[in-house]
Write a structure and sequence with these properties.
The structure is a single chain. By secondary structure, the chain is α+β, with helices and mostly antiparallel strands. The protein has three domains: about 70 residues, Multidrug-efflux Transporter Regulator, Chain: A, Domain 2, CATH 1.10.1660.10; about 40 residues; about 130 residues, Alpha-Beta Barrel (Multidrug-efflux Transporter 1 Regulator Bmrr, Chain A). The protein has seven helices and eleven strands. The protein has an eight-stranded antiparallel sheet with strand order 4-9-11-10-6-7-5-8, with helices on one face. The longest helix is centred in the middle third of the chain and has 41 residues. It starts with a strand and ends with a strand. It binds a DNA duplex through helix 2.
Length: about 250
DNA sequence: CTTCTGACA
DNA sequence: TGTCAGAA
């Protein structure tokens, strides 16, 4: 067994790129034990340990430029803080990924429900929903990029959420689901609903009138106003047509 | 065939 | 960070 290994061997051993090793040298954090006549860098056991140390600091999000001072002047306390910060960051990433996972589940689920159904009126049970008001549209006023921008900041993850339109005294209240303080609460219960795939805005008014007529004809006991829910994330499945669901709580 | 340097996206 | 050319 030889005493020293080449840069590519070190790279293989430690799962980093050759380029990265030269970069470390440029930044003054890892030097070869010596170089040969042909200018090849050679590394020994000591360099392997040192590289491990560097790679660990990298995992703790220490920028390469600061590793130098870090390795020379850091005490045990500093490393503790480093680990604490790193832990917090990892936990935040996990939280984000969990939300991402939930979102994917939601989209898959809703899409699967969609293809089975035939766009008829149906009844389903919905849990309570806490809605926060974003802003209101005056009657007849259409949603535009402009008024979305006017009312910034937009709710978090706008395009991943169900936007609820509550009609109220000639206004359309634009709401989104929230975990904390709610402006409106949609109670748990059975909801008559129907999916809408919409190309032009006026179709919505027509469908709402249709539902009112349907409800009257079947003598449902409506316990709330009609709610329009926009599911923008479903548009990708259907030729970019806007996807809505109209709902009304029934007995 | 491997590595080095330097440059560039 | 990866890639590429030209040289050793």
């Amino acid at each position: 067994m030889k005493e020293h290994i080449t840069i590519s061997q070190l790279a293989q051993l430690m799962n980093v790129s050759v380029h990265q090793l030269r970069y470390f040298e440029e930044k003054g954090v890892l030097y070869p034990s010596h170089t040969e006549e042909n200018q090849y860098r050679m590394y020994g056991l000591h360099e392997i340990y040192q590289l491990s140390h560097i790679l660990l600091l990298r995992k703790l999000n220490v920028p390469v430029d600061q590793i130098q001072e870090c390795m020379t002047s850091y005490a045990a306390d500093d490393y503790n803080q480093l680990l604490e910060h790193s832990l917090q960051k990892v936990q935040a990433e996990i939280a984000n990924l969990k939300m991402h996972e939930q979102f994917i589940h939601k989209v898959l689920e809703e899409h699967n429900n969609r293809t089975q159904q035939d766009d008829e009126y149906q009844v389903k049970r919905l849990g309570p929903r806490h809605l926060k008001l974003w802003f209101a549209l005056e009657n007849g006023q259409e949603l535009t990029a402009g008024n979305l921008f006017e009312h910034r900041p937009a709710p978090p993850r706008l395009f991943e959420n169900d936007l609820h339109y509550l009609s109220d005294a000639g206004q359309a209240k634009l709401c989104y689901e929230t975990a904390d303080v709610a402006d409106y609460i949609l109670e748990e219960g059975n909801y008559l609903y129907k999916h809408l795939s919409v190309i032009e805005e006026p179709e919505i008014d027509y469908e709402i009138k249709q539902m009112e007529r349907y409800v009257a004809h079947h003598q449902y006991n409506c316990q709330s106003k009609i709610v329009l829910v926009e599911k923008s994330y479903l548009s990708m499945f259907d030729n970019n047509k806007l996807q809505y669901e109209i709902q009304v709580k029934v007995e």
